[in-house]
Amino acid sequence: MDAWLHEGHTKGYTVSWRLRDVIHVEKTPYQELAIVDTYEWGKALVLDGCIQTTEVDEFIYHEMITHVAMMAHPEPKRVLIIGGGDGGVLREVLRYDSVVAADLVEIDARVVENCQIYLPEIACGFSDSRANIIIEDGLQYVKKPERKYDVVIVDSSDPVGPAVELFGAAFYQDVCAIMEEDGIMVAQAESPLFFRDTFVQVFLNMRQVFPIARVYLTSVPTYVSGYWAFGVGSKKYRPEEVAEGRRTVGGLKWYTPDLHRAAFVLPRSVKESLETAAEAR
Ligand code: SAM
Prior knowledge:
Elements: E1 3-10, E2 13-27, E3 32-38, E4 42-47, E5 50-54, H1 58-72, E6 78-83, H2 88-93, E7 101-106, H3 109-118, E8 131-135, H4 138-141, E9 149-155, H5 169-177, E10 179-188, H6 196-209, E11 212-219, E12 227-234, H7 257-262, H8 268-280
Parallel strand pairs: 6-7, 6-9, 7-8, 9-10
Antiparallel strand pairs: 1-2, 2-3, 3-4, 4-5, 10-12, 11-12
Helix pairs in contact: 5-6
Bound molecules: S-adenosylmethionine (SAM).
């Protein structure tokens, strides 16, 4: 079989994945979902034609979106994950013994169910007794949450369809209201090279809501341009620093405290685009 998945990133830029197998395809109430087996990156979750996570490089994204916030907070106990239906962020959050409750709010139950069947190493945290899976629109959940949170992680798909408002200041304001007085939130902020407007807007929206707002970068080979950004909003702690006395949890393959600090050192043009936008605001 010589099948390929062609993922159109921009009008002039497409990435093609050679497929070993198309394992499962379905139309859910929210999006087209596929599980494919690729030659280079193992099995992958695809939503509306966009690669969301692959077996080969998922650990980079999941470790960097999770451990920066979890290690900047001195003792995170209650964690909220918005989106993240593949379970990768949940797996990383549950590495912390301090965590007593991890609530995952995913809009599409079929993402959770298919990842449990086809991507068990990523979805392994769903059976943990501390995990609480809530199938609901994250925009609604944060208006009447079950509890307050130390850390909130927004692992959403791209700003299309149900995820558009997850990048907005109104949503960040609602999240801020359900965080503890020393809470930290992190959200995926797209590619600083290919989706610069979204990236800058995430920073400006967080800056509008939180006393401390930052962005940090990592490389996710299977994402647009391989260069990915995260926005952080903090009520008290400096997210670029590892909280005093924190010890790195076991089983990690990418995150280190040095990489944590380095991730906040921004390339000149990226830094300038944020400064220019902030001055213009
Ligand atoms: N890491 C991936 C990325 O950066 O593109 C995202 C992975 S995760 C699978 C994204 C999840 O967000 C999807 O399962 C999608 O259904 C979910 N999602 C999108 N909009 C949502 C909303 N409003 N509330 C809750 N979950 C949402």
